[in-house]
Prior knowledge:
The complex is a heterodimer.
Chain A: E1 2-13, E2 16-28, E3 33-37, H1 44-51, E4 59-64, E5 67-68, H2 74-84, E6 85-88, H3 100-110, H4 115-128, H5 144-157, E7 162-166, H6 174-189, E8 193-197, H7 201-204, E9 209-214, E10 217-223
Parallel strand pairs in A: 3-8, 3-9, 6-7, 7-8
Antiparallel strand pairs in A: 1-2, 1-4, 4-5, 9-10
Chain B: H1 4-16, H2 18-54, E1 60-65, E2 83-84, H3 85-95, E3 99-114, E4 117-126, H4 130-134, E5 137-141, H5 146-151, E6 155-159, H6 160-166, E7 176-179, E8 182-191, E9 201-205, H7 206-212, E10 218-219, E11 221-226, H8 232-249, E12 260-264, H9 265-308, H10 310-318, H11 323-361, H12 372-399, H13 402-407
Parallel strand pairs in B: 4-9, 6-8
Antiparallel strand pairs in B: 1-11, 1-12, 2-10, 3-4, 3-7, 3-11, 5-8, 6-9, 7-8
Helix pairs in contact in B: 1-11, 2-9, 2-11, 2-12, 9-12, 11-12
InterPro entries (chain A): AAA+_ATPase, ABC_transporter-like_ATP-bd, MacB-like_ATP-bd, P-loop_NTPase
Family (chain A): Belongs to the ABC transporter superfamily.
Protein name (chain A): ABC transporter ATP-binding protein
Amino acid sequence: MLKINQLHKSYPIGDSSLHVLKGIDLKVEEGEMVAIMGSSGSGKSTLLNIIGMLDEADSGDYILDGLPIKDLTEKKAAVYRNKFLGFIFQSFNLINYKNALENVALPLYYQGMKRKERQEMAMFHLEKVGLSDWAKHLPKELSGGQNQRVAIARALAANPKLLLADEPTGALDTKTSHEIMAFIQQLNDEGKTILMVTHEEDIAGMCKRIVRLRDGVIMEDKKVEQVRAEQYV
Amino acid sequence: MFDLDLWREIFQSINMNRTRSLLSGFTVAFAILLFTILFGIANGLQNTFAEAFIDDATNSIFIQSGKTTKAHKGLQAGRRINFKNEDFDFVKEEFGNKVEFITARIYRNVQASFRNEQSSYTLRAVHPDHQFLEKTMIRDGRYINQSDIQNRTKVVVIGRLVEEDLFIKTTALGKYINLSGIQYKVVGVFTDDGGDNEERLIYMPVSTAQHLYGNNDYIDQINLTYNPEMDYDEALSFGNLITKKMKDRFSVAKSDQRAIRVRNMAEGTKAVGQMTFGLSVIILVIGFGTLIAGIVGVSNIMIFIVKERTKEIGIRKALGASPRSIVSIILIESILITAIAGYVGLLIGVGVLELVEPILKVYFIKDPGVSNSLVIGATITLITAGAIAGYLPAKKASKIKPIVALRND
Lengths: 233, 409
């Protein structure tokens, strides 16, 4: 599904540069649910952004579903992102002047789907996250948990192969966090490959595999017994 | 190709971000409004100038006679020079095709009456060509013609205000008017742009006046227009040539300024031309100034809009928006706002000009206004400039790495 070889990334800071990723090797199979952990500055978000084609690596190989991701034109990167990846962000990143349904339908718009079709599809996904009654509401009229569920519905809308989540529960309280995690686990049960960045041990424990980063290298990579989130809900 | 979804996106963006749309629209509307008003006022000023000098033909030369001030060729100073018909014919033949229109003029003050109304007017006895020299416009009937000259017919052409003064309850055409005791038939009524005085004149065939007032062939003045194809320098030297020939003809000293006076409108025409040119330059400066101010405004707004939308752009890119779709959504939105706002500014500007027109008349500003093509051109310039100015930041925004845009809070 996903293969990374000797990935390096550094950011310029003034005259010097900060070496964030110092040779990452990672392999993720289909159906896995991986938590990337590490203290702040360990490079976990950078790694996720490179995997999500939101950022580019300086060197190293990245192969996604058999396709080498390298020197992509902006246009091609846009197509790949749309086709292969679904994003869930800590701060939801919904477009504030679009209602829930329109936000969910946006990736479908960029796929070139017809309006009626994509509204039906978006509605289907909103129903899946239990928000069909809130379809016409703007993000500011929804709670944090609801917004994150809209974001998840949006990430799912284009039926991506890989779901990337950057601290998906970072802005939510414990109860809502568990609800969201239960939902993400359910998606994984249905076969979606999920990669998430978190710094919370209990959230990481709800994944099937934990990759620990420190100072730009992988310190530990182990499979864990998944803690089900439903029991807390 | 018409992409309904793209337009839907754009209208939603405009509608949901009303403050932003209104603010940017306001700048453009204001620029076009200022442009329209300033340009309109400047145009009005130019109209006033044009009108002040357009009444008489601008290529006229007037030849008048007076008393000599210097002795010359054995003739004493103080001799009175009188033009006669033969002098008129001389000028006409001597200068041939350099002359466009030519007429003699005799002045008389007359007491005119019709029924119980009477008043005094200036009478001008002229040749038919006089109509073109004075730019007299015939409203009813006809002007003096060649057969009037030959037959010394007792006919007159009167000004609009003469008719108004004397012919209280009727029209003048075909009626007989009494001028200092002699009855003349009114064969025409004229109007003139030169003001009320010009419309209180009475025209009569020159031959009739010579016959009835003094029975001589004297002429007070010879007026002519030169061939309009002559340029300024040719016109000046033509005027000088006439002066010289006339002075020779009447044995007047070259340095005698009074005996033969030739007034050449070409000299004034040049001054008016320079004035008009100066005004045009001012108008251009005003126009470009406001336009540049508008362009700078639009550019600023575009940069601001792109900045404000950076995060949205990041989200859209993460969801699979191509750079092109980012550029087009920003550009089309701003072009749409600019076009609508520009049109609104134009409408308000034209409305304001219409409203203040009567007030401005007092300040020598006549018919302030701008041609539609000019304002539409200005709006298009503004839109184009805005688009170009917006394209660069939009292009840049479309190239931002999504992760940078998403971090922008």
